[in-house]
Amino acid sequence: MKQNFLAAVLLMMLAFSTQAQELKWKVMGRVANAEAQDTLMVIDVKTQRLVTTLNVKDGQIEPIEGILTEPAFCAIQREGRTGWIMSFVLEDGTVNLDIDLDNSVLLNTSGTPMNDDLSPLLSYLAHPVDGYDPAKDEEHARHILSLVREIVLRHAGDALGPFIIQMTQTRYTPTETLALISLLSERQQGDLDIQRLKENMTLAAETDEGCLFRELTGVGRDGHPVRLSDFVGRGQYVLADFWASWCGPCMARMPQVIDLARRYANRGLQVIGITMKEPVEASERAVGQLDIPFPQIYQSTPMSTYGITAIPAFILFAPDGTILLRRTISPEAVEARLESLLSTSGNVK
Known about the structure:
The chain starts with a helix and ends with a helix. It has helices at 2-20, 113-126, 137-154, 160-168, 174-181, 186-189, 192-205, 248-263, 280-290, 302-306, 331-345; strands at residues 23-32, 37-44, 50-57, 60-68, 72-78, 85-90, 93-100, 108-110, 217-219, 225-227, 237-243, 269-275, 296-297, 313-317, 323-327. The protein folds into two domains: 22-205, no CATH class; 217-345, Glutaredoxin. It has an eight-stranded mixed beta sheet. A five-stranded mixed beta sheet has the order 13-12-11-14-15, covered by helices on one side. It is an alpha+beta fold.
């Protein structure tokens, strides 16, 4: 009798535990710039797997429900298109999404605790206060850092803290990323992905803004060995664009980078491409398809040399090889900095 009673208690505890782990989510909201009937894919950012699909009719998401065992950090992808729209949380409750398919960031997300806390950051990324001025890119980066810091402090002990650091870490310097990681709880700092990020950012801090460049070797388009020092430290500004053909945002901004390279070629700037985790053949196809005019370094080690963990990313080198900028800045922001640098150096055509 006693054994039967204990077994029944254990079964009840197991059932309660299983039930407690169920997160019942629901998604609804509006979508701008969609077809009359459209389909959006919800991708788990961490696993890059499809979680669900959203059917859109006349600009509205047809409400959909599901169950998860833990929160999932997700992005939106339009069927048949590259590039993701970042980012929201599938958690217990109803999340309301405000999506513009022409924007790489959600306009707003709300309705559940984590999404409510994400909302101010997403709103700023989609619509910076007073509009976006490339000349004030560093000021915008500081504001983004401030918003992220507030989220991390509120979620130092749960999964949102680590996620938001990883989501935004290319927008500020490695040293600033390390400072954010230090705010996490001991448990969250023990997360394997955060440990790897910390290792990479510690390495990257050795090549942070103000440091001299570090040598990087690879293969050029002609198949011969090539070094970063073939371009950097030779009396001209060098913009290194870290990219890959599988990276939707990289490909989307490549025409702007090409335009920048062509317009500043005679004004003291050399642009080079450095590919990440990609076979040479795939990179070469993209170079040919987009008619990329600047040199490339294939099969190099940007992760272990510069701590590059996410792309797209830029590093801007001074004529003596000193690192001037290293974060995900827009081509417009690079141009604004170049105008300032070239004007003061007298290197303007």
